[in-house]
Amino acid sequence: MLPFSWVGFHVDDSEVTLNVCLGKEFFGGELYFRGVRCDKHVNTGTHQEEVGYYSHIPGRAVLHRGRHRHGARATTSGERLNLIMWCRRELKRYQTDFSSWCGECLRRKKERQHRAVAATKMVYTIS
Ligand SMILES: O=C(O)CCC(=O)C(=O)O
Ligand SMILES: [Fe+2]
């Protein structure tokens, strides 16, 4: 058993993480999620729609992207036992560019597209 009851905010060094709750009886220990990020944007702010929670249930698992920023709240009583599998393809093929998964990259790309469309509309309106 780990000598602490909470896990700080982080991303996993994995492409996909499988987190299986094995038991036992406990209160607390919820996971909180704050959006997928690449290395460049890992410390950027969280948008309201990216806030999510997952309460562990013994016998159930959650599968999430390693780059999905998360942490675990304190287990306030009892004992929580989880099996965590950090999964990725073989090391030499490990994907390090997560920009296509990153919520911040996607948001910025969308903003650029909107600005381009707005600029095009302005050109058509003026001419
Ligand atoms: O305690 C948990 O359920 C999450 C642990 C975790 O995120 C990790 O070990 O990477
Ligand atoms: Fe984790």
TrEMBL record:
InterPro entries, sorted: Oxoglu/Fe-dep_dioxygenase_dom
Superkingdom in the source lineage: Eukaryota
Protein keywords: Vitamin C
Fe2OG dioxygenase domain mapped to chain residues: 1-89
Record Gene3D superfamilies: q2cbj1_9rhob like domain (2.60.120.620)
GO molecular function ontology, one term from the record: L-ascorbic acid binding
PROSITE patterns: FE2OG_OXY
Full protein name: Fe2OG dioxygenase domain-containing protein
Organism: Linum tenue
